[in-house]
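Open question from group meeting: does this chain pack into something compact, or does most of it stay loose? Before anyone orders reagents, we agreed to write out a predicted structure and look at it together. Recording both the input and the output here so the notebook holds the full record.
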Amino acid sequence: MITRKVAYPVNRSVVSWALYDIANTAFNLGVVGLFLPLWIDHTQGTTDADLGIPISISMGIVLVLSPFIGAITDQLKSRVKTLTILNIAAVIATLLIGFSSSITTGLIFFCIAFVSVYLAEVVYNTMLKSASTPENRGRIGGIAIALGYVGSLGVVALALHYQGINTNYAFGFQAIAVLFFFMALPISLFFVDQQSPPTQSIRSTLNSSWEQIISTRRFLTEHPRITRFLIARYFYMISVTTGSTFGVLYGLKTIGFTETQVELVLLVGVIASMPSAVAWGYLVDRIGPLVTLRWNLVGWVFVFAASVSIPWFNLDNQLWWGLGVVTGACFGGLWVADRPLLIKLAPANLGEMFGIYGTVSRLAFLTGSAVWSLIVVSMGFGQPTAVFILMCCCATGLILLMRLRTA
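Structure tokens returned:
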């Protein structure tokens, strides 16, 4: 009887944690990567900066709050409650984007949803330790990401079905909000966190959280491998987050694809990403997260190099279809590998470390969005030059990881 009572909550935790990736991926691909760029592209007088600036502002907010979220959840032992509150805010804000009559109002609600989702991701990542063991962490992460891309299939299918019916894409935002709600609900109801309950007051908790943040510098000094990993992550996340966000606009304006073709390329990439995410997970468990992450970044460097080669060398733009497959194959492997790598490198303060992990990602996204807007709009060098910069950043992250050791 005792064994069954222990096993059941763990199984519920695994399933609910994996299902949440559907919500997270649907927002990132559907709102950030597809419907918002398409809405901006269809609105007169807008440029790439109308996507880049709101993201930069939102990332600045997340950048400041991520370490506090991580440290507070370490102290309060309230990951599920914190995640639930952030999810509710994300659902409401995403729903209101679909009811916005102007793009300015829609972008305000987008910023609120964006901040909520990315702060929730900090908490969600720390929960992987409770949902898995060192022996199956890669596989569980891979399965979760593969499930996430199942939701992405629905998002792309929705875009293809409603294309041209309503160019403010209201129904798309509303549908993603509903999907997010139902996929995030199980983790709030069924996840069993293995943290001990808090034993101190809220005031003491806030003081302890602040002291924990202050001690971060000393902790990172004592664990230089974590610092090296985070620096490498900053560079490769500039490439991946920025490329994912502006990929639709690049396909439309530089590659010369139609909206339908861009959506179909996304569909092809999503289909490729599902089995590849599981495969990357098995690689993590077999050869380790560090080696797996290095190989994944080799694939990303190739994607950026090939993307910039098409316009610069006047190559056939139909090569974009093949790049969609390679991008999809690489996408899930990044998070499948680097989350277990951080867990392996960090001996303590995991919530805070994932808070910093999230902060690095947000800082990278902020940097990439600002640089893209600067290069493409302000300096007028064009999208291919911006992609070349992203390729250099990814290569820098790979080189830094080649010098990292896990033991």
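Observations to bring back to the group:
The radius of gyration is 20 Å.
The first helix runs from residue 2 to 42.
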